[in-house]
Sequence to fold (280 residues):
Amino acid sequence: MNPISNIWNHPKTSVAGILIAVATIAGALSRQGISLGSAGNGTVVTLVSALATALLGLLAQDPQNNSATQNNPGSSTTRLGAWALIALLLQIPFMAGCSGTTVAQDIVNWTPALQSAVATVDSTAALLAPSDAPIFAVATAGFDATSNLLVTQAKAYLAAPATGLLSQLQAQIVTFQQQVNAALLQSAKIVNPASQKHVLTVLNSVATVVNAIFALVQSISGKAAVAQMAAQSTIKMEAVTPYLDNDQSAQIIAQHYNEPAKVAQMQLTQAERTLTQAGF
Fold:
């Protein structure tokens, strides 16, 4: 069978095959620590994988009983869509090459949201039940100092990207993420339902920004540095996942990047998967 003719006559199946191949290759590259540059709060590789997965989902929902497609599977509209998608996918690998400065700017862009989230944490204890406030205060005691230092280091790295400054940024983001993870686990000790719900909401806001910055830092870190960061992360993401609200996190990301919530949800899922695969 002529492969060109087969692609032309069965565009949907061919595109599905391409998407599966793209997602598979991207997953393999991601596991090997190959990023091909940064994209948003992740890497080009993870973005390609997420897009391929999302497009496969849309393709799977395409009605099978469309009479025009069945009667003329090689229609010009269908062929155009298939080849346009193929052309897009072929161009994606050449979109790599974002510099460390670009990622550093993205990290700095997240710092106002971080400072706002931490400020909300500072005012939360007064809203909790008397027996719960001390638990929350102890769990979040280091947030101010750690966030302020992270913001300072992010700005310093943006001003003069250097290996030494990146190492400080790597260590600081690990420290902060571990503090947030510990605070999330401590929230389990809060028995008042209203207090616990309020605590988890404010902590989830901080965790969302911290993990977004973490993913950005990871995207410009070498394999050895990522391994060292993972070794220092004693409280893994899987331990705190039950306490996180992905819908709230996706809304924060969507607002920050001015993008649809579904796209943000896709980015969030892929970023969490990438961090988990790296040992965080």
Remarks:
- Residues 3-95 form one domain.
- The two ends are 48 Å apart (CA to CA).
- Strands lie at 38-39, 42-43.
